[in-house]
Amino acid sequence: MTDNAVESEGVKLQTPSRVDPEFKHEVLSMPGGETLKYCFQCGTCTSCCPIADITDSYRPRTAIRLAQLGLEERLLSSDTLWLCAACYTCTDHCPQGVEVKDVLRVFQNLAVKKGYIPRVYREVGKNILNAGYAHKISKFKMKKRIAIGLPPLSETPPAHMEKLAKATGFHETIAEKEDKE
Amino acid sequence: MSGKSESAGNSEPKKDAVLKYAFYLGCATPLRERAYEISARRVLKELGVKLVEMKGANCCGLPIDAVNHEMTLALSARNLAIAEKKGLDILTLCSGCTGQLMKTNKHLKGNRGSRERVNRYLKTIRAKFQGTIEVKHLLRVLVEDIGFEKLKTYIKRPLSGMRIAAHYGCHLLMPSKYLEFDDFEDPEFLREFIALLGAEPVRYADEKECCGAVIAGVNLDLPLNLIADKFRNVKNAQADAMTTICPSCHLMYDQYQSSAEKMFDETYNIPVLHFTQLLGLAMGIPAEELALDGLKVKPEGFLTAMAQAA
Description:
The complex is a heterodimer of chains A (181) and B (310). Chain A is mainly α. Helices cover 47% and strands 6% of the residues of chain A. Chain A has 2 domains: 2-113, Orthogonal Bundle (Fumarate Reductase Iron-sulfur Protein, Chain B, domain 2), CATH 1.10.1060.10; 119-180, no CATH class. Chain A has helices at 23-28, 44-48, 60-69, 72-76, 89-93, 100-113, 119-131, 139-147, 158-168, 170-176; strands at 2-6, 12-16. Chain A has a two-stranded antiparallel ribbon with strand order 1-2. In chain A, helix 3 packs across helix 6 and helix 7 (119-131) crosses helix 9 (158-168). Chain B has 2 domains: 20-139, Up-down Bundle (Glutathione S-transferase Yfyf (Class Pi), Chain A, domain 2), CATH 1.20.1050.140; 150-309, Rossmann fold (3-Layer(aba) Sandwich), CATH 3.40.50. Chain B contains 14 helices and 8 strands. In chain B, the strands form 2 sheets. In chain B, strands 2-1-3-4 form a 4-stranded parallel sheet. Chain B is globular and about 60 Å long. The interface between A and B is large, with 60 and 58 residues.
C-alpha cells in the first residue's frame, strides 16, 4: 500500500512503502505477460485508448510502469485495473510489440489471486459454473424460445464446467473465496 | 467436407457447394439479443447455409479472461473440440466469441506448450483439442465463403436512399495478428456490405470507437459516454440507422441508448439494426420474420422511409 504525505505547499506525495523487484518476473513468467519487458513507456497505448480518452483515472502506460517498478500492491489493488475495455487498440498500435491488453489481463488475473475481484466477475463466473453460460438462464426465456420456434438452448454439462474449473484453478478464484470480496 | 475453409482472406468463395457449419450461439445472442439469432437463422435459411447445432457448448470464455486466463482457454478449447468432432468449421454471430475462439484456436495450433497444457485440462472431461477446424463470423462467411458477388443475386429489395452508419466494433479486427481480416485502422467490409444492400454507407467521426460493453458491469457511466459520443457523430452525419455485427455492441447501442439520452439530456433516436435484419429486408424477407419488434429503439420511421424510397 502507499502512504500519503502532504508537503507544505499542499502537494500530495505518494511514497511507496513496498517495492517488489521480483514482481515483473512473475508477470513475465505468465502466459501473455512475456512482452512486459519491451515497453519503453512511449504512451501510445494510453493515447489511443478509448477509455483513457474519456476518463483521467485509467492509464494503461501507468499500469505497465507500476509493474516494471515492482509497485505490486498499488497496481493490483487499484479499481482502475478493471476499466480495460479489452478492445485491443493498444496491442495493435504498440510500436514495441507489447501485447498490452494481454499484459493488463495478467495484472487482472494476479489481482484476482490476491482477492481483488469486482462483484460482476464473481456472478459471471458462477453462472458459467452452474450452467455454462455467462448469463443466468431464465425458464421464461427458455419457454419463449420454443414458443417462437427456436431450437431449445443447448445444455452444458455442469460437471464439465466443475472439472475444468478445478483443473485450471478457476474454482478456487470464484467459488472458494466467495466471502472475501 | 463442406464448410471447410482455407486460411483467412485468400479462400475463394465456394460458389456451388452446400455450406455447412457448426453453429456457435454464445451467451449474449440467445439470452439478451434474440432478434439477432432469429434474423440470422432466417437469413441463413434463405441463403441455403446448413447449421449444425453445437450441443453441450459453453461460454467462449471471454467474459472471465480477466479472472482466470487458463479457464478461458479451457472453455474456448472445449467448444473448438465439439466442432472438431463434427468435422465442421464454426460459424459465430458474436464478435467477442469470434475473437476469443479464433485467438485460442490459432494460439493452440501454433504453440505446443499451451496445447499440451490445455489438453491436460480437457482430459479431465475426456475432450481433446486437435486443431483441425477454423472459426468464422457470419459476416466473414458472407465475404469469404459465399462472396459478395453471389450474395448480390439474393438482393430483391434494395434499401435505396437509406443512409446507414456502420459500427465495426473491435473483435472482428483486433488483435489483427489473430483476426487477419480487414485493415484494423481503416476497415471497409461493413460499408461495402451496406452498399451491397443498395443503401448508402454513411461516414462519420470516430467510426472505430469501441462500445465499452466489456466494462459495463464494472462502470456503466464510461460506456454511456462512449454511446453518447457515437450517436452524436452518427446523428451529425444524418444517418437513418446504424448497424452492428455483434450482440454486445448492439445491446449497448440499442438497450442503453435511452440511458445515454437521459444522462446527457439529448435525443438521438437512431434505430440500431442487426446486419442480419438489414440483409433480410434487402432479400425481401417480411419484416415480421426478422424480429424487428425485438429492437428497443423502434425502427418504424426507418421502415416507413424505406417503403417510401422503394
